[in-house]
Design a protein that fits this description.
Elements: E1 2-4, E2 14-20, H1 26-40, E3 45-52, H2 60-66, E4 74-79, H3 88-102, E5 110-113, H4 122-131, E6 157-162, H5 165-169, H6 172-185, E7 195-200, E8 212-215, E9 219-221, H7 226-237, E10 247-248
Parallel strand pairs: 1-5, 2-3, 2-4, 4-5, 6-7
Antiparallel strand pairs: 6-8, 8-9, 9-10
Helix pairs in contact: 6-7
The chain binds FE2/S2 (inorganic) cluster (FES).
Length: 272
């Protein structure tokens, strides 16, 4: 995958994938569809869709699967978030390789643009927004703050997704987004024992990256993929059974952590 400018050579049939982080409500999803519609008007663009690198649908993985059309000359990924984490390009590259292995076959070449802050047109855009500030909505001071109550459903289970540096470089953001989408779709908060999900900093076994941990058992899962998360949701969160193929088994003996092949669904153990 190359980092590229978005100039279209004549005769190109490109797909454009606009990537933002998260959106929960219908309105931002519609706004992203509108912006994708504008991208579709650009010369050489056969199709444009928006997607979410964290929570929201379609996810980056789902959108790429939708665009796996050999008649396209390329797929151009346009990250619309600022600032872009230095690890973004690394995890996107690794995740795409993993997804291509998951769906083998002919893929169009995939490119990724520079971040929008580096565009020649960013400065005029910024000026335009600042000059239009007078016509934007004023934020009125709140006269008094009324404390709102919280309703917490009974939740026995907790999933921590590691977003430490090693796990981030292995695509933890995309996996976090996938887990949150599954949690929403399967109503995991209130189904079965009830599952709460959260991000965590380094959970310890970095060599297993990407890592997540399921409580109350405290089971570590390593080499996690989207399919692994689907399986963990079905079998562990809803069924109470640890998914051995991805679980780190504490043996009580000193051992080296397993090295996980990028495209393998079953981690290999290298116990000493
Ligand atoms: S960075 Fe994820 S376990 Fe250390």
């Amino acid at each position: 995958m190359r980092t590229t400018d978005i100039e279209a050579p004549v005769g190109e049939r490109r797909a454009v994938l606009l990537v933002v982080k998260s959106a929960f409500a219908a309105a931002p999803h519609q706004e992203m569809q509108r912006i994708a519609g504008l991208a579709e008007l650009r010369p050489g663009v056969a199709k444009a869709i928006s997607c979410f690198s964290e929570q929201g649908t379609p996810s980056l993985r789902e959108a790429l699967f939708e665009l796996r059309d050999p008649s396209l000359s390329s797929i151009v990924i346009v990250p619309l978030a600022l600032p872009l984490e230095p690890s973004f390009l690394r995890w996107v590259t690794k995740s795409i390789r993993r997804w291509q292995a998951e769906r083998p076959g002919e893929w169009p070449p995939i490119h990724i643009t520079r971040d929008i802050g580096q565009s020649l047109h960013f400065e005029p855009l910024l000026s335009n927004l600042i000059e239009g500030a007078a016509s934007s909505l004023p934020i009125a001071p709140t006269p008094s703050l009324v404390a709102e109550g919280s309703l917490v459903p009974p939740q026995k289970r907790r999933v921590l997704v590691c977003t430490g540096p090693t796990c981030n470089a292995e695509g933890a953001d995309a996996l976090w987004g996938h887990l949150r989408n599954v949690q929403e779709r399967r109503k995991l908060r209130a189904t079965g024992d009830g599952t709460m999900t959260a991000k965590a900093t380094c959970l310890g076994p970095c060599n297993l990256a990407p890592v997540l941990q399921v409580f109350p058992e405290g089971t570590y899962y390593g080499g996690v993929t989207e399919r692994a998360i689907d399986q963990i949701a079905d079998e562990h969160l809803l069924g109470g059974r640890v998914v051995d193929a991805f679980a780190y088994q504490p043996t009580g003996r000193k051992q080296r952590l397993r090295i996980v092949a990028q495209t393998s669904s079953t981690p290999k153990e290298t116990e000493t």
